[in-house]
Amino acid sequence: MTAVDTKSTILDVAEQRFADQGFAATSLRQVTADAGVNLAAVNYHFGSKEGLVKAVLMRRIEPINDERRRRLDALPDPPPLEDVVRAYIEPAMQTASQVSGFCRVFGRLSAERPPFLAGFFGEQFGELGRRFVAMLAKGAPALDVQTIWWRMHFTIGAMSHTLLNAEVIDEVSEGACGTADRAAVCEQLVTFAIGGFVQRGETR
Amino acid sequence: MTAVDTKSTILDVAEQRFADQGFAATSLRQVTADAGVNLAAVNYHFGSKEGLVKAVLMRRIEPINDERRRRLDALPDPPPLEDVVRAYIEPAMQTASQVSGFCRVFGRLSAERPPFLAGFFGEQFGELGRRFVAMLAKGAPALDVQTIWWRMHFTIGAMSHTLLNAEVIDEVSEGACGTADRAAVCEQLVTFAIGGFVQRGETR
DNA sequence: GTCTATAGGTTGATAGAC
DNA sequence: GTCTATCAACCTATAGAC
């Protein structure tokens, strides 16, 4: 066994490239050249470009969703609303703070959403999403199910946008937002999301 | 003058294609074939593929930002926080409800962010973004500037994600969220964003 | 303004030697 | 498992006739 094997080197480089450029704009030639491996290695190890991007995503999503399930399992009944929100946000934000490529690869691909990934996100998130909605409904009994769904989508959008555009946020705010302190970013997001969730209903 | 001229037909078709597939995955051959015009017409009217996508974006962004400026101009001093939030969200959501392609083309391209558009979004949003931050700060004097910036980014993320994924939201929520009623979606979003903004500070 | 034809380059994937 | 060589398809952009 060498220091790092071809397969995981390809995964690392591909994650970075897909994060920077997206799926359609990234060629296998770029990936294999950066990784210092042969062009044919991608097809040998992953079958196709689509197989590669799925492998890149799965490597990060599975541990995050496992951690989310573990946290939901540990909550009391009824669960505090804040803890449910944190169970969703924190595992992803912590991974993003440890794995630089993941900061954007997930947000980018979920925005680009190439056709062959259409079912993929539904599979990864369907059952877990329904569990979160059920828990949120218990934590905020005054809200109807439709409102819970909407607010979860808004929370996902805020998080996805933040993961995707960290450096843009730094730039456009002229340094007011320090994205380097990931823990502080996570707290800002949690606070905002909880504020959105505790609203009673329409404002007009 | 014919019923619809070549140039605006290309813009309409390109908007739809870029919305569905993004920039890199859309070829000029698809656009010109759908539009029933010649391949060379794109380069004649827009100079290049990049020129085309900029024209597609400008056609929608300019009126939206003009309307936002008009609304900011009309606010009292100090402005009610809710009205500032509405001044940002409503012009975009109303355009999205009238122009089906815009629902996704803006969110998609701002997520894909091809390199040549890097400066474009900054130009379109820089001055206006600073104006919104200043107005939000007046409307929520208890918050520091950094928190204002973060919450505006979260609001943009929630809106962008909603515009981009309307049909996905319908599907994953199993119909609980009716995206067809655009006005109701807009109200859900405004309510959520205001809730996030009125939070006093950290929750822990 | 619109067309055909094509230049000049890239892509994903694979066959077959080692 | 890794390599070279190559295929067939696709792309943007342009030159030049009408």
Can you offer a commentary on this structure?
- Two copies of one chain form a homodimer.
- Chain A is globular and about 60 Å long.
- Chain A is 74% helix and 0% strand.
- Chain A is built from ten helices and no strands.
- The longest helix of chain A has 25 residues, at 49-73.
- In chain A, α1 packs across α4 and α4 (49-73) packs parallel to α7.
- The model of chain A has no long low-confidence stretch (mean pLDDT 92).
- Chain A is an all-alpha fold and 204 residues long.
- The N and C termini of chain A lie far apart (65 Å).
- At the A-B interface, α6, α7, α8, α9 and α10 of A face α6, α7, α8, α9 and α10 of B.
- The structure holds a DNA duplex (18 and 18 nucleotides).
